């Protein structure tokens, strides 16, 4: 089976491959990460980029935990649904912020607050041009906010409070220092997407100055030229690895079923024959049982995805 990462359209294929890449990127980091994504029904997805349990279908909220496709219930059936939210707070997650979320181009909210995430903020998250809210408060992140994040024109709320290692000025274009919205004392109207009355960039519990950085030399055009947005093919190793593993597991199932059937038949035959019958037939090695049943033992990587 071959895999071709080039396609037209944005969903479901791009979103499916994005969720598979994210699953593979973090699954083996820790038991906490494994617990967070093990409930995702990625095993129902195929190489064509469709899943038996659609991430944005009517049943999405029963299978794709922490994945949301908001405000799309009344969309016409011919309009593709999109993943808008990844919500993984308070799970004791470790390691760097996962880079593969950048493939979810329609994300409006990315929330992984109150975990143990470390390292710098990914520059290429500036490719998530629909982001409205990003919340990584109360982690262990470090470094400065990439200047490319100033290209996120829709961003209204950015929370990095409780990250003592995050420091420096605010890039031109990111939300200003956190402030109150709405009500009698709010200086600006509150966005419709949130009930939180504090919006902007949180500067408490970190080393952000709250002041804007000098304009980037050459302006937004020069800044955009420094940004390379990843594509699905950049995560080929993760996606191919997933489908190879899935194919190997599926190829092994017929042999497992034959073994189980042979085990039952041997026990039943032995019991019917009475004392002295050969009841060890169920313990014959897998290769011999498969041969006796006319089933070819699958290769270790049979049915996998070609890495060519």
Automatic annotation (TrEMBL):
SUPFAM superfamilies cross-referenced by the UniProt entry: L domain-like (SSF52058)
Keyword S-adenosyl-L-methionine appears in the UniProt entry: no
Sequence segments annotated as region (Disordered): 269-308
Compartments it resides in: Cytoplasm, Cytoskeleton, Cilium axoneme
Keywords: Signal
InterPro entries listed in its UniProt record: Leu-rich_rpt, LRR_dom_sf
Record's compositionally biased regions (Low complexity): 270-293
PANTHER family in UniProt: SOMATIC EMBRYOGENESIS RECEPTOR KINASE 1
Protein's recorded name: Uncharacterized protein
UniProt source species: Chlamydomonas incerta
Lineage: Eukaryota, Viridiplantae, Chlorophyta, core chlorophytes, Chlorophyceae
């Amino acid at each position: 089976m071959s895999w071709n990462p080039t396609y037209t359209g944005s969903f479901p294929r791009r979103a499916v491959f994005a969720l598979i890449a994210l699953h593979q990127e973090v699954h083996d980091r820790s038991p906490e990460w494994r617990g967070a994504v093990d409930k995702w029904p990625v095993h129902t997805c195929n190489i064509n980029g469709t899943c038996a349990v659609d991430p944005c279908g009517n049943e999405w909220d029963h299978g794709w935990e922490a994945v949301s496709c908001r405000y799309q219930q009344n969309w016409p059936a011919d309009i593709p649904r999109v993943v808008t939210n990844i919500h993984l707070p308070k799970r004791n997650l470790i390691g760097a912020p996962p880079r593969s979320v950048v493939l979810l181009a329609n994300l409006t909210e990315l929330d992984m607050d109150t975990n143990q995430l470390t390292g710098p903020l990914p520059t290429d998250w500036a490719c998530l041009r629909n982001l409205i809210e990003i919340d990584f408060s109360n982690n262990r992140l470090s470094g400065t906010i990439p200047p490319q994040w100033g290209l996120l024109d829709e961003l209204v709320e950015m929370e990095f409070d409780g990250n003592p290692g995050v420091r420096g000025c605010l890039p031109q274009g990111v939300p200003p220092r956190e402030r109150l919205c709405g009500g009698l004392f709010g200086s600006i109207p509150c966005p419709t997407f949130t009930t939180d009355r504090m919006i902007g960039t949180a500067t408490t519990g970190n080393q952000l100055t709250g002041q804007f950085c000098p304009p980037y030399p050459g302006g937004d055009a020069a800044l955009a030229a420094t940004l390379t947005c990843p594509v699905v093919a950049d995560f080929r190793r993760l996606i191919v690895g997933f489908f190879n593993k899935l194919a190997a597991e599926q190829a092994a199932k017929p042999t497992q079923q034959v073994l189980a059937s042979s085990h039952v038949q041997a026990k039943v035959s032995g019991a019917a024959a009475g004392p002295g019958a050969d009841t060890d037939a169920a313990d014959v090695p897998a290769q011999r049982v498969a041969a006796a049943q006319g089933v070819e033992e699958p290769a270790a990587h049979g049915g996998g995805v070609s890495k060519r």
